[in-house]
Structures
1.
Amino acid sequence: MFQSFKPASRIDEVRYEIRGALARRARELEQEGNDILHLNIGNPGAFGLRTPETMRRAVVRNLKYSEPYGPQTGIFPAREAVAMQFQSRGLTETRFDQVMIGNGVSELVDLVLRSLLEPGDEVLIPAPDYPLWTAAVVLNGGKAMHYPCPADQHFWPDVEAIRAMITPKTRALVVINPNNPTGAVYPESVLQALADLAAEHDLILFSDEIYDAICYDEARFVPMATLASETLCVSFGGLSKVYRACGWRVGWAVFTGALERAEDYRLAVEKLAALRLSANVPGQWAVQTALGGYQSIADLVAPGGRLHESRQAVIEACEKSRFLDLVVPMGALYAFPAVKPEALADFDDHRFAAELLEQKHILIVPGSSFNIRDRHHFRLTLLPEAEELALAFERIEDLLEELAEEPERVRIAKSA
C-alpha cells in the first residue's frame, strides 16, 4: 500500500489567503460562466493600468542584450539608477554596489531572511502584515513576532509595544510603509522612533517601500534609510506597483547605514542570489527609464486622478454605510474597512468573504488573513474605476443588510 505524499510540516504555518481557497473558488465560478470582480490583489495591469510606453520601449530596444544570464546582483544601469534615486533623497554616498536586483521584492525578502536567520531567531513584523513577510520568516526557520498597529492609532506602529517584545533572539524589525494592507503612511516621527529603537538593540531594519510614490492628499513618504544611519537598513522597491509592471518581476534591495558591520551579511545574500544565476534581465533595462523619467503615478494619485477618485469612492461608500468603519488610506493601493461590532455582533470575516463571493460575485480578502486576531476587517484594492467600486459597495451593503436580518429570521422561524 503506497502512502500519500505529504508536504513539509512547516507549510501548515504559512498563510497566503490572498491567492488561497477563495481565489480558487472564484476561478471555479468563472469557469461556470460567472463574472467575478477581483478585489483581492493589487494587480494594476488587470484593471487596464498600463506600464508606461517609455519603459516598454526600453525593454524592446535592449532585448538583444538580454539573452545571456546577467550578473547575480543585477545589470549596472539598473543598479546605478536605483543608487541615484537614493542620492536624490539625501543619501549622497549611495553607490551601485549597495543595490541588488531581484525577481520582484518577494524573492529578495526570501534571500535576505535566508541569509540572516538561525532556527528560532525572531523577526518583528507589523500586524496587520503583508503575509509574505511572515511566511518567509517561518520558511527560513525563524519566528514571526507580530507587533500591533492599532486601527485607533491610524494603523501606525505602537513603538513602546515593539520595545517590550524585543528579546535576545530578535534579529530584525520589518516596516511596511506605505502600508499593505491598511494604506497607512507613517509620519517621520514614528519612523525615526523605529530607526532609533532598531539602532538601540542592534536590529536590522527591513523597510518595504514598494508603494513609495503612491501617497494621497497631504501624506508624505519618508524613506527609512534617511533616518537609519546607526544600524543596517535594507530598503525594498520595484517596478510592480508605482510603474504598473507586476509581471516583469523587477525589484531591488538597497543596503545603507552600518555597512562596515554588514559586509559579510551582504555577501551572503549575494551568494544566494548567485545560486539562482540572475534575475529576469529584460525587465531590468526599464529601471533607468522608470526612475529617471516623468513619474506618471503622480497623475493617478492627485485629485481627479484614477486612483484618487477610486479611493474617494471607497471613502464615501464607507461613510454612507451603517455597518462600515474606515481608517482612510493615505497611501498604497488598498482599503481595510471594518464592520462595526455594534452593527453586526457576530460578523466573521471569512464567512462574509465566502458569502460575498458566492452571492455577489466579489472577491475580497478576510482581514484576519493578515495575521491579526480581529475578524471584523477585510481588504480590497483601489484599482477598479470609481464607478465600479461604488457598485461593489452597494452589493457589499446589501449582503451586510441580509446578515443583519438573519438572526431575526432565525428567531421567527424558531418561534413558528
2.
Amino acid sequence: MIVRIVRLTLKQEHLAAFERLFESHHNAIESQPGCRGVELLTDPTHRCVRATLSRWDAESYLNAYRSSALFGEIWPETKAMFDAPPMVWTYEVGEAR
C-alpha cells in the first residue's frame, strides 16, 4: 500500500470553493479502484494551506486515477486556485527493509 500527500497552497479567496470542490468529489475519488480513502487536512499555522492524504493499494492504482476522466475534471479546476505549486510525497506503507 502507498500513501500520497499533496500539499496545496491556495489563494485565500478560493479556500471555500476548494473545500466545496473536494467535498463534491470525495466519494467519487474514494470509489476509484484501489483507493482506500482520502482525507482533506488543514495546516494549523498556514491558513491557506491544505493537504490531501490518500491511501492506495499500489502506485499503479494512483496512476490509473491520475489518468482518469474524474481527475481530468478535478485537477484543472484545482490548479486555478493555487497560490504556489503543489508539493507531493508518496510513501510505501509497511516495514522498512
3.
Amino acid sequence: MAVRFDEVQVGTELPAQSFPVTRAALVQYAGASGDFNPIHWNEKFALEVGLPDVIAHGMFTMAEAARVVTDWVGDPAAVVEYGVRFTKPVVVPNDGVGAVIEVTGKVAALLDDNRVRVDLVATSAGQKVLGMSRAVVQLG
C-alpha cells in the first residue's frame, strides 16, 4: 500500500530497522560494486592503515539506511533525492556476529508537489555513522 501525501505530517515516524553487517556481506558487496579496497575485507591491511578493524563500504551503509525509506514508501523510484555525509565508519569485527546498522527516520518537511523530506539517523555501536542523511520522496 502506497503512502499518500495527505496521510503524513511533519514528525511522522518511519518504522525503525536494524541491518546486520557481516564480513561475508562486505565481500558480496565488493563483488557487486567492484569496490575491492582491502579495508573492507582484509583485517591485517585495515589495521596497518590505522583503522580499528575492517569497515563497511560507505555506499553499503548509505544503501542500508535508504531501505528504511524505500520500505516505507513501497516504491524505490519514489525517492527523487538522497544524500548523506559519512561521519564514522561501520566497524565489522570477524566474530561471527559482525555489526549492526540501526536506522530511524521521520518526515521533516512537507514540500511542493506531494513531496516530503525524510531525515534519517543511522548508528552503529552507539555512534552516528551518517550525518545529514536526507531523502526527498514523491508521494501520491
